[in-house]
Design a protein that fits this description.
The chain is an alpha/beta fold. It has 13 helices and twelve strands. InterPro entries: Polysacch_pyruvyl_Trfase.
């Protein structure tokens, strides 16, 4: 049985490539031939990324930004594209539009919308019909595996078209419980909750994948996707309180000037290791939070300004809402160590739910 999956694999960050790998692994466990459609949003193409990143800048500021971007993107290619090339099966053709997919649709028994924020129209700069499998033949089986809208609901303007597109699906699973409600409110009832693909794999899978420890000392790890000085100041004081070294995963060269000893765009396996061996993780990232919990690491979560519902959903589900930092003077937020027995049982139950979904749709 061949499954073609479309997801946000080409967004060069750790969460995107790790959820892609995890999705492939889950389908392979069923003996499926899995291939990911090498689809790239227009704004994700490098030529457009450069343009948008320097939009409205004067020539001096634009040149300064490009001086940071060029080596950053070169490293991204090596780390993220290299990881996918080595570990994930992609279509030979790269698609950049729905029209290309309709003209040369890859053949499959099942078409699958994968995980991450595939149905977040704000994140995707509009309603991306490709992520709704519009190109897939009418008579083909269509499913969604742990899809996300990144918010509590669809925007009003997109609901009529989304309803039409989702009505073609045979089965839908959403990453957040709030998104299940959003889909049902559209009148689509063949929907259930399945947690992120990275959580569908047990802790031992990721520990086996991780490199040996990157840092020998006790350390607090920062993985920060959104600029926030209060976050930075808190991390410095928090690390001092716990007598730990402060380490930072830098996803761009310019982040090396921020607090914490920089680890510049580590290999994906090193990223997993950095979380697995940290004493504490401070993050505004959903996937860093998910990995910390799955790997039984102490985490402090700072919500970003947008798309925080995915973070609140996982903290609520794991009884970890007390680790959502709202007061940057709460240096004692992680003084009490976490009893991970409830969290581990929750993830076991979620893995069973994910297995039940795949048992049904792949039967």
């Amino acid at each position: 049985m061949k499954v073609e999956v479309i997801t946000l694999h080409s967004i060069r960050n750790y969460g995107s490539v790790l959820q892609t790998l995890a999705t492939q692994e889950k389908f392979k466990q069923y003996g499926c031939e899995v291939e990911f459609i090498n689809y790239m949003r227009q704004d994700a193409l490098e030529k457009n990324f450069y343009r948008e990143f320097t939009l409205n800048d004067n020539p001096v500021k634009s040149a300064a930004k490009r001086a940071v971007l060029y080596p950053t993107i070169h490293r991204w290619r090596h780390v993220f594209d290299g990881f996918l090339s080595k570990n994930v099966t992609l279509t030979k053709q790269t698609y950049t539009s729905e029209a290309q997919l309709e003209t040369n649709t890859p053949k499959a028994d099942i078409y699958c919308t994968g995980s991450d924020q595939v149905w977040n129209s704000e994140w995707n700069r509009g309603l991306e019909e490709a992520f709704y499998l519009k190109f897939a033949p009418d008579n083909a089986k269509k499913i969604a595996y742990s899809a996300s809208i990144g918010r509590d609901d669809f925007a009003d303007w997109e609901k009529p078209e989304v309803t039409k597109l989702l009505s073609r699906y045979d089965a839908i699973s959403m990453r957040e419980e709030s998104a299940v409600t959003a889909v049902r409110n559209l009148g689509i009832n063949n929907v259930c909750h399945v947690s992120d693909p990275t959580l569908q794999l047990e802790r031992s899978y990721w520990e086996k994948m991780a490199t040996p420890p990157v840092v020998n000392d006790d350390y607090v790890l920062i993985y920060q996707l959104n600029k926030n000085k209060l976050f930075d100041d808190f991390a410095i004081r928090f690390a001092k309180r716990h007598h730990c070294k402060l380490m930072r995963v830098c996803v761009r060269y310019d982040q090396m000037r921020l607090p914490g000893s920089p680890i510049l765009i580590p290999e994906v396996e090193e990223f997993v290791s950095l979380i697995a061996n940290a004493r504490f993780v401070i993050t505004d990232s959903f996937h860093a939070t998910a990995f910390s919990l799955n790997l039984n690491q102490e985490v402090v979560c700072i919500y970003p300004g947008k798309f925080s519902s995915r973070l609140s959903n996982i903290l609520k589900a794991t009884n970890m809402t007390h680790r959502h930092l709202t007061d940057f003077n709460r240096l004692d937020i992680a003084d009490k160590h976490t009893d991970f027995s409830f969290i581990n049982q929750y993830f076991d139950n979620e893995r069973k739910r994910g297995t039940d979904f795949l048992d049904k749709v792949l039967a």
